[in-house]
Amino acid sequence: MTTLADPVPGGRPGDVERATALSGELSGRGVHGVVLSYVDTAGIGRVKTIPTARLASAAAWGVGMSPVFDTFLANDSIVTTDVLGSPDGDLRLYPDLDQLVVLAGQPGWAWAPVDRVTQDGERHPGCGRTFLRRIVAEAAERHGLTFKAAVEVEWTLARGDAHGDAFVPATTGPAYGAARQVELSDYAADLLAACAAQGLDVEQVHPEYAAGQFEISVGAVDPVAAADRSVLVRQTVRAVARRHGLRVSFAPAVVGQGVGNGGHVHLSAWRDGVNLHSGGEGRYGMTAEAESVTAGLLAHLPGLTAVTAPSPASYLRLRPSQWAGVFTAWGRETRETALRVVTGTAGLRDQAANVEIKPVDLAANPYLAIGSLIAAGLDGLTSSAALPGETTGDPARLGEAEAAARGVRRLPVSLEQAVEEFRGDDVLRAALGPVLADAVIAVRRGELASVAGLDDDQVAAAYRWKY
């Protein structure tokens, strides 16, 4: 006779017992259901939910969900490839109990990210969380490195009573302005309280540049947890906003013109507890290894954009002179270069120094984005890549000859160009593996087809409330 305590494919030793205890604890705290969360290739958060009493069963056997979601588009259309997009088959969603959180913004619910596993107990090659975990393990095993990461989350708040799909900013205060903070003070306070209750160490939350725009930053952690946090932060931002009658968009471009929502990634490489981006003999305290990691990121940026800026709307945001970082250049605290070397304040640099990757938005699957960034950095490390000269000021102002001499070039100006760069990047495609690389290409092409013939405003509107 089979019982919950029997070993099962895809589970972890002790998870069933833990889940049984957690189920009772959650019920005692008034939690009725658990959100099982993952992110698809298009960057859309997908879920299944279970009653709290079913948590032990989910830990033992997983919860069924079709692999077809690997080729879902943001508009819920499905594209097909030779290996993906079929109505056949099934996967099991296994909750990561270490990351389970009671949702302060959604009373009665808890949340947990999942790993996707086949019915035979094999890790699904299309699972972004599994991919990121594999890249992190390779960094440790082959190079003796660990990484820390954090994702900045920008969003736009709209009035919830606006007609239809129209965008009406929820605040009229100026960029970074005190008036905007005052107008939405109650919302921001409740958001901070919810994050604190969920164990999210918020470093800052503030009004941003675009109309109705805010940003929240949380502390850097290991890459898998950083991707999980990015999803949880957005779940919380949206839930608290709904309770205040507000509507949220994380879309790269909410309107056709102007500054969009970014999802900048901060990344640092560590060895034996020492930050390689500080205390070295290289530029701004970088070690030789940190410079090579940064050089690897720089070299692969054109192909990376297909992963980090995956929507047609992403290219409405990636415009020069808007702090989006659209040139293959780096600089210390330079907000117009694609890579911003952050040294941190004197006295904290051994902990705070990192590199910020700017051409990233929240249409990106955070697991695929962070994993691909690390893979690019490791390629630079393996080849001892040399970091080119620093760029100061706005690279858009460089003359053609000077830009060419510096190796500074414009990143793809469209998703179509980004896909072609990705197709030509053997390192990125090999890191993702054939199934995920195939999904990235197919889904990006599907997104392009879905907006063919639309102008900028129509493209922005098509994705405004998808993210």
Q: What features would you highlight for this structure?
A:
Creatine Kinase, Chain A, domain 2, alpha+beta, 14 helices, 2 domains, 467 residues, Ubiquitin-like (UB roll), 6-stranded mixed β-sheet, 16 strands
Structure report:
The protein has 467 residues and is an alpha+beta fold. It folds into two domains: 15-123, Glutamine synthetase, N-terminal domain (Ubiquitin-like (UB roll)); 135-464, Glutamine synthetase/guanido kinase, catalytic domain (Creatine Kinase, Chain A, domain 2, 2-Layer Sandwich). It contains 14 helices and 16 strands. It has helices spanning 15-28, 55-61, 128-143, 178-183, 185-197, 223-243, 288-308, 314-317, 349-352, 366-382, 400-406, 415-423, 426-450, 456-463, and strands at residues 33-39, 45-51, 63-65, 91-95, 101-102, 109-118, 146-151, 153-159, 202-207, 213-218, 246-249, 265-271, 274-275, 330-332, 339-342, 354-357. Strands 1, 2, 3, 4, 5 and 6 form a six-stranded mixed sheet that branches. Strands 7, 12, 13, 14, 15 and 16 form a six-stranded mixed sheet that branches. The termini are far apart. One of its GO terms (biological process) is glutamine biosynthetic process. This is Putative Glutamine synthetase. GO terms for molecular function: ATP binding; glutamine synthetase activity. Residues 29-121 form the GS beta-grasp domain.
